[in-house]
Amino acid sequence: MNRLKKLLGDGSVAVGVQLRFGSPAIAELAGKAGFDWILLDTEHAPQTPPGVQAQLQAIGNSQATPIVRLGKNDPALIRLYLDMGAAGIAVPFISTAEEAKIGADASRYPPRGTRGWGPHRAATYGLEEEAYTTHANDDVMYIPIIETKQAVENIEAIMAVDGVDACIVGPFDLSFSLGIPKQFEHTDYLAAVERIREAAVSAGKSTSLSLRGAFDNRQGPTHHADPGAQLLLCGGDEPFLGQAFRESVRRYAHLKHKGGQT
């Protein structure tokens, strides 16, 4: 069973991380560290299908649930990454219920959807075809990324689509679309996020929020961990490594002034 789906169904908060570097070692480390779900970003990073599969295999050594973030709502790409063993697909710029239905249908086998049969690693390379086929429609997840004003206006219809399991709020693009770039405390942005969460709760689904600030800031998770925000995204390999490297340089900066003396 999809562990992330079970967590959400039980009402638990699931903490996730987004990875862009394409490293199987980092993916495995993130899973072993205890993240509940891992978002492999192929939209904003030059990731390749073989590289994604290697990360999926690495994540398979942990309890984390792997979700692949695509660059577009392409049924062929949805099929490919699900066949590789992704537990779910996240797609950007879904702004209408019609767009959401295309992706949700592409994630499920007929008669519920339009996904072509041919699981690869997902069915353990053919060793578990029957079991995978039986449970795939219930186990996989399709997650629209909500990041336009139009999407907010249509959010109730989007979340009502059969096969849409949750949604992710794309804070930067949403703020730009609302005409308030990066103003995350603006009343219009907060109202949009609240409407998204209310629509998710009404549909019995969950909203993913990105937590901002330093990775050691406890206020962010406390502020956002309320009903409808079970699916939390708390950073990624870029910000975590960037902050750690910057802190290391700051911490050891005094050594540079010793002129190499011991």
Would you kindly provide a written description of the structure presented here, covering whatever features stand out?
With 262 residues, the chain is of the alpha/beta class. It has one domain: TIM Barrel (Alpha-Beta Barrel), CATH 3.20.20.60. The protein has twelve helices and eight strands. It has helices at 3-9, 24-33, 49-59, 75-84, 97-106, 129-139, 149-153, 155-159, 171-177, 187-202, 219-224, 237-251, and strands at 14-19, 37-41, 65-69, 88-91, 141-146, 166-169, 206-210, 231-236. An eight-stranded parallel beta barrel has the order 1-2-3-4-5-6-7-8, surrounded by seven helices. Helix 4 (75-84) links the parallel strand 3 (65-69) and strand 4 (88-91). The longest helix is centred in the last third of the chain and has 16 residues, at 187-202. It is globular and about 70 Å long. Mean pLDDT is 91; it is low at 221-225.
Kindly state the number of beta strands.
8
Tally of contiguous helical segments: 12
| Average of per-residue pLDDT values | 91
The whole-angstrom Rg is: 19 Å
CATH topological fold name:
TIM Barrel
Number of domains: 1
| Low-pLDDT runs | 221-225
Distance between the termini: 57 Å
Largest sheet: 8 strands, parallel, barrel
- Annotated CATH homologous superfamily: Phosphoenolpyruvate-binding domains
Structural class comes to alpha/beta
Widest beta sheet: strand line-up: 1-2-3-4-5-6-7-8
Helix proportion range: 40-55%
Note the run of SSEs as H and E.
HEHEHEHEHHEHHEHHEHEH
Q: What is the CATH class name?
A: Alpha Beta
Shape: globular
Task: Give the second-level CATH assignment, the architecture.
Answer: Alpha-Beta Barrel
